[in-house]
């Protein structure tokens, strides 16, 4: 995206040219990949023409001017259906734009379309999906992750310059890991969330899915309405500062104890630890709260807040929901207010424990997921490894810390492996600059899914 923006700013290509290039790829590849629920071709062309007119008139251009982006279909868009991935909302057309959509379009960004998500942001493959399931561009038979899976597929396959997702337990970072791209969840509160249906008030965060860390920083700079406490005015322009002073924490026992951890992920993570040490001051071992404590807290809070929105529909007409979504959320109907409050108290204790860890290091690194992208299968939801795909990601939703997944290698089948960097609240620059330095020194190869597929 940064390269394209420079070409548009220098008027070597027009925003209209860029949009037509992406629309051509969507026409050719979307029937294979199903990244989008709605492609907004005419709106994109109109927005691109306006971007070119604005560029010709001479005002300074924003960093996202003329850039074609896709957004998860949970962001409200005026006059364009916003389905939340659910049959019950298949014809819902809002009369306003979400805050971030309004802000990005005001800066000249171009909306290419709305991407697939698991029903009502549940990161679950569906039995009877209202829209075709997205396919992982590295292997069409594999799950691309969720719930922001369509956004990750669109970025990995070159069907947009960048995309937006939401993350309440790993829903940006997991599909980014599975699809070999960058997925960034900023500090909670950095980006305004007005105008979308949250899966969880406590955890849901907006963030970008991109090809590079620089693009992710550029998008958050554009989305954040004003500098937050302690953050530089522009994250992107600070990325290339030295990372030689940063202390990196590796929770080795926490990672090694994960019973679903694949050997390929274990090996890629071990290599990545050595590679991160090349660009940081020190790498030390740290301890993190155990998943058997934190996962139940996350589950109680997430399902309770999901059901606060959807329980009346579930009780009156459970047939409105996909059977696998119903199976996943049904336990939440048994939770009491006491359960929810106790889980929130437990969450505060976890935040305190992470604060103490972060007093000794600047950034934590872990694998993003314990396994690479699994194959689509009818019994996927009963697969113990699939049920634990958020074992590393959910912790930073509990605490609201910034967290980013970047590609760090492949398994023996050629599927991408993700590495996750997480930092203190509001220290997003440490997370971004270290992950950027890592990717610059050890770029993914091959960078794109097989050309035989993405012809």
Q: What's the gist of this structure?
A:
Helices cover 39% and strands 13% of the residues. It has 455 residues and is of the alpha/beta class.
Structural class: alpha/beta
* Proper CATH architecture: Alpha-Beta Complex
How many individual β-strands?
11
CATH topology type? Amidase signature (AS) enzymes
CATH classification, class level: Alpha Beta
Q: Spell out the CATH superfamily.
A: Amidase signature (AS) domain
Residues in β-strands, percent: 5-15%
In helices, the fraction of residues equals 25-40%
Q: What's the number of structural domains?
A: 1
Envelope shape: globular
Distance, first to last CA? 21 Å
* Sheet having the most strands: 11 strands, mixed
Give the assembly state of these chains. single chain
Quick tags:
eleven-stranded mixed β-sheet, alpha/beta, 39% helix, globular, 11 strands, Amidase signature (AS) enzymes, 455 residues, 13% strand
Question: What does this protein structure show overall?
Answer:
The chain has 455 residues and is α/β, with parallel strands linked by helices. The chain has a single domain (2-441), classed as Amidase signature (AS) domain (Amidase signature (AS) enzymes), CATH 3.90.1300.10. The chain has 15 helices and 11 strands. It has helices at 2-9, 15-33, 41-56, 99-106, 149-156, 173-179, 213-223, 252-256, 263-277, 291-316, 323-329, 337-358, 384-387, 394-399, 428-441; strands spanning 36-39, 68-72, 110-115, 162-167, 182-185, 205-210, 247-250, 282-285, 363-367, 403-410, 416-423. Strands 1-3-2-4-6-5-10-11-9-7-8 form an 11-stranded mixed sheet. Helix 2 (15-33) packs antiparallel against helix 3, helix 5 packs parallel to helix 6 and helix 10 (291-316) packs antiparallel against helix 12. The longest helix has 26 residues, at 291-316. The protein is globular, with a radius of gyration of 21 Å.
């Amino acid at each position: 995206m940064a390269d394209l923006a420079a070409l548009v700013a220098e008027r070597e290509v027009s925003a209209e040219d860029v949009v037509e290039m992406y629309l051509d790829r969507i026409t050719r590849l979307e029937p294979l990949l199903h990244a989008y629920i709605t492609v907004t071709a005419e709106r994109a062309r109109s927005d691109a023409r306006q971007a070119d007119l604005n560029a010709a008139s001479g005002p300074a251009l924003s960093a996202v001017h003329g850039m074609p982006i896709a957004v998860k279909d949970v962001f409200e868009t005026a006059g364009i259906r916003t389905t939340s991935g659910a049959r019950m909302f298949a014809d819902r057309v809002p009369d306003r734009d979400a805050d971030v959509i309004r802000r990005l379009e005001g800066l000249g960004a171009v909306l290419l379309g709305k991407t697939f998500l698991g029903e009502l942001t549940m990161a679950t493959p569906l039995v009877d999906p209202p829209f075709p399931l997205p396919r992982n561009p590295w292997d069409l038979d594999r799950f691309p992750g969720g719930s922001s899976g369509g956004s990750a597929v669109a970025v990995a396959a070159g069907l947009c310059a960048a995309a937006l997702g939401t993350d309440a337990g790993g829903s940006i970072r997991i599909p980014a890991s599975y699809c070999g791209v960058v997925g960034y969840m900023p500090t909670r509160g950095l980006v305004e969330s007005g105008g979308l249906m949250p899966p969880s008030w406590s955890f849901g965060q907006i963030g970008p899915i991109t090809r590079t860390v620089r693009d992710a920083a550029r998008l958050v700079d554009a989305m954040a309405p004003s500098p937050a406490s302690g953050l530089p005015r522009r994250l992107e322009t600070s990325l290339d500062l030295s990372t030689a002073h940063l202390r990196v924490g590796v929770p080795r026992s926490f990672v090694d104890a994960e019973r679903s951890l694949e050997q390929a992920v274990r090996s890629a993570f071990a290599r990545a630890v050595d590679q991160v040490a090349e660009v940081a001051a020190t790498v030390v071992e740290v301890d993190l709260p155990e998943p058997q404590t934190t996962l139940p807290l996350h589950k109680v809070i997430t399902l309770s807040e999901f059901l606060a929105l959807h329980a009346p529909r579930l009780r009156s007409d459970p047939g409105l929901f996909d059977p696998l979504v119903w199976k996943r959320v049904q336990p939440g109907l048994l939770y009491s207010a006491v359960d929810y409050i106790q889980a929130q108290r437990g969450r505060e204790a976890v935040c305190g424990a992470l604060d103490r860890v972060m007093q000794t290091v600047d950034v934590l690194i872990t694998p993003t997921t314990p396994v690479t992208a699994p194959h689509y299968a009818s019994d996927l939801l009963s697969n113990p490894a699939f049920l634990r795909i958020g074992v590393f990601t959910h912790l930073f939703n509990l605490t609201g810390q910034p967290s980013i997944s970047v590609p760090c290698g492949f398994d023996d089948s050629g599927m991408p492996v993700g590495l996750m960097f997480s930092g203190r609240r509001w220290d997003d620059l440490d997370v971004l600059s270290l992950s950027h330095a890592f990717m610059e020194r050890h770029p993914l190869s091959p960078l794109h899914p097989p050309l035989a597929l993405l012809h």
